[in-house]
Amino acid sequence: MLYRLLPALAHAAVLLPLHAVAVRSAVAQDEPIELADDPFEITDPIAAPPGAAELGFVGSYERARRGRVRDTGGVEAEFEMGVVPGLELRLGQTGAYGNLETRRKLGTVTDLSGSSDDAGRALWGGATRLGALYQLSDGRGGLPAVGLLGRVRTLYGPGRTGYETEAVALVGKTLWGGERPLGLHVNLGWVARIDPQPGERPNRFLVNASVGQAVSRDTALVLTYAREQQERGDRDYSVVQAGIRHRLQSGTVLGLAAGAGTNRDSPSFQIAFAVQWQLSEGWR
After folding, report:
1. β-pair partners for 101
2. Which of 18, 96, 203, 257 could form a disulfide linkage to 243, CB 3.0–4.6 angstroms apart?
3. CATH number of residue 136's parent domain
4. What is the b/e burial string over 66-104, where b = at least 16 CB atoms within 10 angstroms of the residue's CB?
5. H/E run at residue 150
């Protein structure tokens, strides 16, 4: 009798974990897709629940308006995990190759204008960052959701290693709820360079704003404006992005954004692609 039950038990042992994963995926699919996330330059103020983990990857290409080297390719990976209610830890790594003067955040740590060795050739750069997002409010009762994001960054580039701290206020408001929400998000930040080199700006600001409209439970259209102060003598990095985010049945989210700069010191064109994997739904 027992030997007849063994195949059924083995079959159940295989199907039960798959069923549990499917249930968790179905629960996640019940919520509308996030309107403020990669590959757009905007961050949502809602922290992940305890135990929830996500891994994101972004690939990008930018074309500078001027310079001997105008092409820049970049990659970014970030791991996010909720630890306690309202608190999320983040660990990320970025890398870029090309015209690093196009964007300071891509990893350049020196002013190359006076360097005859590095001027006019493609360069490698990157950054390692560690941070935390603390959620102050969840947006209920007609009030916006508010969060604080703090990070420390180690920058690698053609010069000596640089270090930065970043503090960003995150605000999000759902203007229209339901299955197809309309949301507005704003990020206001301040970046401080630790031990800046002569001529480098020790502090700079950033302002990002985004509006997102879900056209279905799993698809959203997003329009974003990003602005970040650069070195003295350079105009602010200023880019407008537009694109789409779509969630597959597995829970994986794909994103595509195209953008253009609004001044001579910003990229004439950029395109970014993102993939986000939900590793865990959290401790239940």
Report:
1. none
2. 257
3. 2.40.128.130
4. eeebbebebebebebbbeeebebbbebebbbbbbbbbbb
5. strand 145-156
**CB neighbourhood size of 274 (10 A):** 21
pTM: 0.84
Q: What is the separation of C-alpha 233 from the centre of its chain, rounded to a whole number of angstroms? A: 28
Residue 2 lies in a domain: no
Return d(Cα 91, Cα 74) in angstroms, integer.
17
Calculate the CA dihedral of residues 99, 105, 111, 112 and round it to 10 degrees.
-10
Q: How far apart are CA 91 and CA 79, in angstroms?
A: 5
Cα separation of 18 and 21, whole Å? 5
> Residue 1 domain-assigned?
no
Quote the CA–CA distance of 111 and 251 in Å, as a whole number: 43
- From the list 31, 45, 40, the residue with the least C-alpha distance to 177 is 31
Backbone dihedral region for residue 24 (phi beyond 0: left; psi -120 to 50: alpha; all else: beta): alpha
How many domains does the structure of the chain reveal?
Answer: 1
**116 occurs within a structural domain:** yes
Element (H, E) at 190: strand 182-194
Residue indicated by tokens 């063994």: 6
pLDDT of residue 66: 82
DSSP letter at 76?
E
Residue 36 per-residue DSSP state: S
Write out the residue range of the structural domain in which residue 234 sits.
Answer: 31-281
Average the pLDDT over 160-165 and give the result.
88
Nearest-5° Cα angle at 52, 250 to 165:
120
Instruction: Flag whether 59 is in a domain.
Output: yes
With tokens 């759902």, the residue in question is 174
Mean pLDDT of 147-155: 96
70-93, pLDDT tens digit by residue? 899 999 999 999 999 999 999 999
In the numeric block, which tokens belong to residue 230? 């650069």
